[in-house]
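Please produce the structure of this protein holding D-xylitol-5-phosphate.
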Amino acid sequence: MRKVKLAPSLLNADFSDLREAVSIIENVADVIHLDVMDGNFVPNITFGPLVVQAIRSITALPLDVHLMIAHPAEYVEDFVRAGADWISFHAEVTRHPGEILGLIHNHTKRAGVVINPQTPAARIFEYLELMEYVLVMTVMPGFGGQVMIPEALAKVGELKEEASRLGLELEVEVDGGVKTENLEMVMAAGTDIIVVGSSIYAASDPRQAARDVRAILDGEG
Ligand code: DX5
Ligand code: ZN
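Below is the modeled complex.
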């Protein structure tokens, strides 16, 4: 049975206590998803390398840094230095994703491209061989707690099909609006890594919510 990875997003966590936020998910997460926003590419500002570095210092989990920023090439090195293990940036901010993917690989980190709900998967087919994963947005980027756009899930299969046609080992990550109610649909789409934010951190019992998500991913839910 395919092991689906869990990437909890801290975006809706209590930032006044990051140790607690990490401890809520540490036993069930495969990676920690960190949503970096610059108030330019998206109408929200979250945090930068300083906070990534702080989280790096309190967990051994890989850090999956999602750059929702207009000029990712200028910041790759800062996030590598801060402790990022995976770095993804949006296809919508560049006509040359190969260059930024190369920058990330120069630091031997996992590199991925993110596509917004309205961006066709085919837009990045020619670059798939240059990346380890694709992050498929199932909400418009910028905020946690939104309702999923299920039509975007079709891109998971399109990407997996094109990758296998090209003989590539490509992982597909889904991000936005994932809840326990739609988790099986996201898994059935062939997703390898699933981001879950507010349905863990906005839950009345976040630790239990995190365990519930893990149980479903492991086919025990
Ligand atoms: C939105 C972020 C997502 C989001 C996921 O721009 O990329 O990671 O925080 O949070 P939920 O699971 O609440 O949609
Ligand atoms: Zn994200």
